[in-house]
């Protein structure tokens, strides 16, 4: 529900003020970075029991921090590109795809354990994506057939009106009041 509200609000603001995804990202990224820098160490201490400044940095840790930051930037840019263009449901489906990628890459790169719960969750997400894609395609086909049907009705109605006008202009009609004929 929250995602739907955020996507709809941001999408409507983008349209209202005619701003693009990158402009929106450039306005919100500093606020997000500031809040992360201020709140991050305290949340990390609450979760791990030690401050981040006490961590011994190695070259491998720095490499993975830079890789993680790069992937986070790519993820944020891709999300902001999607917000104004897709519906809230499509945005949510993309979010589930991102989660599946994170779980799969964690398993491939870091040898993290894939539990039955993770695998079933990913399978359910894939099934949901397939059903959603199918439903969207069916809706598009139904809408296009309705539009085609309405257009054929319009053109036949226009054709009937034209024939009626032609027929009325070419026939002699009696004027009942005057007893004469109009031509």
Automatic annotation (TrEMBL):
One of its GO terms (cellular component) is membrane. Keywords: Membrane, Transmembrane, Transmembrane helix. The chain crosses the membrane at residues 29-47, 59-81, 93-110, 119-136. Residues 25-133 form the Sugar phosphate transporter domain. SUPFAM superfamilies: Multidrug resistance efflux transporter EmrE. It is a multi-pass membrane protein. It is found in: Membrane. InterPro entries: EmrE-like, Sugar_P_trans_dom, TPT_transporter. It holds the Pfam family TPT. This is Sugar phosphate transporter domain-containing protein.
């Amino acid at each position: 529900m929250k995602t739907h509200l955020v996507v709809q609000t941001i999408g409507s603001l983008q349209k209202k003020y005619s701003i693009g995804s990158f402009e929106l990202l450039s306005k919100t990224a500093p606020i997000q970075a500031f809040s992360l820098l201020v709140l991050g160490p305290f949340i990390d201490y609450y979760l791990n029991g030690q401050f981040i400044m006490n961590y011994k940095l190695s070259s491998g840790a720095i490499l993975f921090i830079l890789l993680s930051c790069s992937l986070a930037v790519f993820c944020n840019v891709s999300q902001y590109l999607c917000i104004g263009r897709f519906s809230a449901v499509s945005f949510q489906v993309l979010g589930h795809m991102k989660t599946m990628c994170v779980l799969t890459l964690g398993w491939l790169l870091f040898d993290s354990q894939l539990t039955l719960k993770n695998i079933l969750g990913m399978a359910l997400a894939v099934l949901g994506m397939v059903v959603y894609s199918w439903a969207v395609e069916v809706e598009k086909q139904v809408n296009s057939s309705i539009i085609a049907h309405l257009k054929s009705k319009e053109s036949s109605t226009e054709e009937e009106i034209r024939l009626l006008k032609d027929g009325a202009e070419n026939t002699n009609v009696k004027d009942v009041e005057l007893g004469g004929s109009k031509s």
